[in-house]
Amino acid sequence: MSGVRFTEDQSTNLATLYGRALDARAEHPVLGDPTAEDAVRRIDYDFGKFKIGPAEAFGIASRGKVFDRVVREFIAAHEECTVLHLGAGMDSRVYRLDPPPTVRWYDVDFPDVIDLRGQVYPGRANTTMIPASVTDTAWLEQVPADRPTLVVAEGLTMYLDPGAGRALFRSVVERFPSGEVFTDAYSKLGIRLQKTNSVVRRAKATLRWGIDPEELEEVGLTLVSVQYADGFVPEEDWRYLPTLQRVFYRGSLRIPVLRKMGKLLRYRF
Which PANTHER family does the entry link to (predicted)? Predict the structure, then answer.
C-alpha cells in the first residue's frame, strides 16, 4: 500500500500506530491492540525511521488506554450516543472497544488518512469515516444532532491553529444538544519545547497550540477535570514502565512545570 502519502504532521499518526503495534508485541502489553500490529504489517512504510523504543511505545499505549476508558464510561452512561473520533489517524479504537449497535461512531481525518484506513481496516456497522480536515466544520452537517455526543481527540489539538481549534469546539457546542469533550493538550511551554519530543522531532512535525484549561470555557465548554502528566499512565501499569524511564518519569512529576507540560482535559457541554 505505497500509494498513500502524508504530510509531516500527518505522519505522526503512523508513529503512534507503530507504538501501539510494539506494545502489542511486548511481554506485558499495556493496551494489547493486535489490530495495530496487523495494520503495521499491511502498510508499506519505513516505520523504523521513528526509532520508537519500549518507553515511547509504553507512553503511546498507556495514553490510549486512558482514552479508551473514558469512551467506555461515556457509552456505559449513554446507551444511545454519538462518538466523534477527531483526528482518528490509524487508531483502531472502534475495533478495540467494539461499541454496541446503539452507538453511532464517526472517524474523522484528512482524506488521505481516511483512504488508508479504508484500505487497512474492514467496514463496520454504525461506523462512518468522514474524509475532512476537522477544522473545516462543514463536515459536522453529516452527523445527526439528536444524541448525547462524546468528542474524543487524542494527539490532535497541539497540531491545530489556535483560532481554528477554538472555532472547532465552538461549532461542536452549537451543533449538539449535550455531551463531553476529552482531549490531551500541551502547555504553552510544551509548545516552545516541542523539539524535546522525540516522536514529533523525528516526524519533522510542528506543534502549534498550547491550551490553558480554562480557555475553552470561552467557547461554551465547562471544565470537568484536568489530569497532568501523572494521569497519562494507568496506575496498574506503572510496573511495566522500563526501570530507568520510571525513575526519570517519577522525578519529572516532582517538578511542577514539567508535570503540567502535558495534560488530559475533560469538558461537558
Answer: S-ADENOSYL-L-METHIONINE-DEPENDENT METHYLTRANSFERASE YKTD-RELATED, S-ADENOSYL-L-METHIONINE-DEPENDENT METHYLTRANSFERASES SUPERFAMILY PROTEIN
pLDDT of res. 2: 45
**pLDDT tens figures, 195-222:** 666 666 776 778 999 999 999 999 999 9
* Residue 5: per-residue pLDDT: 58
3-class SS shares of the chain: helix, strand, coil, % to 5? 50, 15, 35
Residue 266, class by beta-carbon neighbours within 10 Å (0-12 exposed, 13-18 middle, 19+ buried)? middle
What radius of gyration do the chain's Cα atoms show? 18
CA distances from 79 to 86, 127, 155 (A): 21, 16, 27
Tell which CATH architecture fits domain 12-268. 3-Layer(aba) Sandwich (3.40)
Residues of the chain scoring pLDDT < 70:
1-10, 195-200, 203
- 3-state SS, residue 44: coil
For 91, the 3-state DSSP assignment is coil
